[in-house]
Write a structure and sequence with these properties.
By secondary structure, the chain is an alpha+beta fold. It has 3 helices and 7 strands, in the order βαββββββαα.
């Protein structure tokens, strides 16, 4: 087992409230999440409140999409969203995700961080290939799509 952290950031020219709204509501993730296109037949289930703490999103899809659940654990309006992430398939894992939104004049700096412990297959592979190489490019793709959505609607 080994702890890992994956971090990516981007500057978005949009109000913090706009960016926060796109992150704090799982229904909005369909427009920017880098994993949404992995399975055109992806099954989605939303429960709890529409946004903020307690909002839950479950998915089940093909081998690439896997299955899992995300729950918003905490949210500070226009500044941060914490998500508990549980992968069920193809491999079980529990991680913590945090989005920080930091005002910078007319823009915001958005930082996407995921932390967790590598176990099983990933603990073995992680000794050679860091977790950052597995998901870092996905974070970059997701932040680019979040930026486009926030800036262009």
């Amino acid at each position: 087992m080994g702890a890992f952290t994956v971090v990516r950031s981007t500057v978005i020219t949009a109000p913090a409230a706009t960016v926060f709204g796109l992150i704090n509501n799982f229904h909005e993730w369909r427009h920017w999440s880098p994993w949404e296109g992995l399975d055109p037949a992806l099954e989605r289930e939303y429960s709890g409140p529409s946004d903020g703490p307690g909002a839950t999103y479950r998915w089940r899809g093909n081998r690439k999409a896997g299955a899992g659940r995300m729950t918003i654990a905490a949210a500070a309006p226009d500044s941060s969203v914490d998500v508990d992430l549980e992968f069920l398939k193809p491999m079980a894992a529990t991680n913590h995700v945090r989005f920080d939104i930091e005002p910078q004049g007319a823009s915001v700096l958005v930082t996407w961080t995921m932390t967790g412990e590598t176990t099983g297959f990933f603990a073995l592979v992680g000794k050679v290939i860091p977790m950052d190489r597995f998901v870092g490019k996905d974070f970059e793709k997701g932040l680019a799509a979040l930026k486009a959505r926030a800036e262009n609607g």
